[in-house]
Design brief:
Helices cover 47% and strands 12% of the residues. With 414 residues, the protein is an alpha/beta fold. It has 2 domains: 7-51, no CATH class; 65-400, TIM Barrel. The strands form 2 sheets. The chain has an 8-stranded parallel sheet with strand order 3-4-5-6-7-8-9-10. The longest helix is centred in the C-terminal third of the chain and has 26 residues, at 387-412. The two termini are 37 Å apart. Bound molecules: adenine and zinc ion. Adenine (ADE) binds next to loops.
Length: 414
Amino acid sequence: MGGNSYLQVGPDFRVQGSCSPEQGVPSVECELLLCMNAIRVLALPLLSLLLLGWREPLSVQGVDQATLTEILHDMPKTEIHTHIEGAVRPETILELAPDYQVTLPANTVDGLKSHIQMRPGETLLDFLKKFDCFRFVFDHPESLRRISYELVEDTARENVIYTELRINPIKHPELLSVDGVLDAVIEGMDQACRDLQVEAGLIVSINRSYSVESAMQVAQAAVARMDRGVIGLDLAGDEAHHPVEKFKAVFDYAQAHHLHITIHAGEAAGPQSMAGAVEVCHAERIGHGVRLSEDPVLERMFQRRKIPLEMCPNSNLLINVVKDLPSYPLARYYHAGIPVTLNTDDRHIFDINLTGEYVAMARHNGLTLAELEDISLTGARVSFLPAARKAALIRRMEKRMAEFEARWRARLGR
Ligand code: ADE
Ligand code: ZN
């Protein structure tokens, strides 16, 4: 409300015009007018509360694990941090390998999974090598279209109605250019959105170990596709050995072209890496940020500035960034008012899905259903969509969430 609003309700309650307190002590008529205005403003919400009745938020307390999973599968969700590279179905890798004359280290789904999935004690550096045996899927437009389509399909199957996917488009440039990778991904993503009635946007990711020149080339290719589904620029990879500051010029360029920015930070390095991402490289959101609590001053800054975190609990657990899920700081950040979202990061490398991340936070972080619904909606609120599309997405999410609640109130009889 601006300074010209007719009536403000709250501690500074007053009517502008003839009854403003600046004109002295209000008269009896003036008090009466103030009162009538207050009644008029409050009447509608009070009446609707009386007619509709006040409702406790739907609780899932006491429901068994299988029902909780069913509920959270059914809940409309958003996912804004998911790498195409880490979300290639093992089945698809096996199916495509003969087409490109590639020999895999295993020829069954379980055998392949044991090669590409995380083992106890492994770290981010081990994780970053997991892609080696199936890099061929990123070298051909047809396979890129398919894996992008299938990622949107995997998320839609668990009622994710908005996904932000990301990919590092520098693969084997001698086989397929950065432009070729991005165009194929956009085609696959768009086709899936049309077929499945969901929405998606593409974040282009830069690998921290690459040169500034190649990073700039990636940023330029991203900016050139802002009218075709590219919504953001990301920095990923080896955080501990490649500080964000090296890429300042690249993120200055992205910001100058109004491309949204998110940066992986506070995962393999401490809070100073998050501060650099925000202060030097203009990050609007932080990928992970799990180590934010190590610096209470920075944590207060995130709280004050409401900088969103794209949190990925099982990714952090499997990469050995956190010791367990009960001590996972998502609930702490949420209750401090920092906008947090829940994501898988790399669903097929970790063998997880988004529903499981919500179940884990309900079970181990004590989050209520209302809080999980809020976290899902936060994904829409902090999405990188243009303003009008974002507003429409939030409305669609709210409608779907109300329908979901009504469905489960009836089923649980609560
Ligand atoms: N690339 C894919 N997943 C990543 C992660 N969790 N951290 C850094 N780079 C990544
Ligand atoms: Zn990531």
